[in-house]
Amino acid sequence: MDDLMSKGMRHANGALLSGWSAGGLAVILHCDDFGNLFPRNTKVKCLSDAGLFMDAIDVAGGHSLRNFFHGVVSFQGVQKTLPQSCTSRLDPTSCFFPQNLINHIRTP
Fold first, then answer.
1. Which residues form the domain of 55?
2. What is the C-alpha to C-alpha distance for residues 84 and 81, in angstroms, rounded to an integer?
3. CB contact set of 102 (below 8 Å; sequence gap of 6+)
4. CA–centroid distance for 9 within its chain
5. Which of 15, 50, 71, 86 could form a disulfide with 104 if both were Cys (CB 3.0 to 4.6 A apart)?
6. Torsions phi, psi of 68, nearest 5?
7. What radius of gyration do the chain's Cα atoms show?
8. Quick check: helix, strand or coil at residue 86?
9. What distance in Å separates the CA atoms of residue 42 and residue 107, rounded to the nearest whole number?
10. pLDDT tens digits for 86-103?
């Protein structure tokens, strides 16, 4: 992003961050950070396509996705980038799931 901003993107009238699947999850996770790169008068939007991974019991009766995401959060240091408004109420792994994170995002 620093490279694009230095090449003039900081002067854009509008900006869209988009991604699908895991990239869609990344859009949700980084939407506010992306929006904060621009002046307030820039119209910023985020589009997550198929990035809603649900914290639900799987067909085997387990929590395989939760266990996987716990590893991601732990090993990659994701906790530092999650909104404090979420992590003050829920554990960091729960805040990695869009169903819990989405209400803490300010950028449309």
1. 2-104
2. 9
3. 28
4. 21
5. 86
6. -65, -50
7. 15
8. helix
9. 12
10. 999 999 999 999 999 999
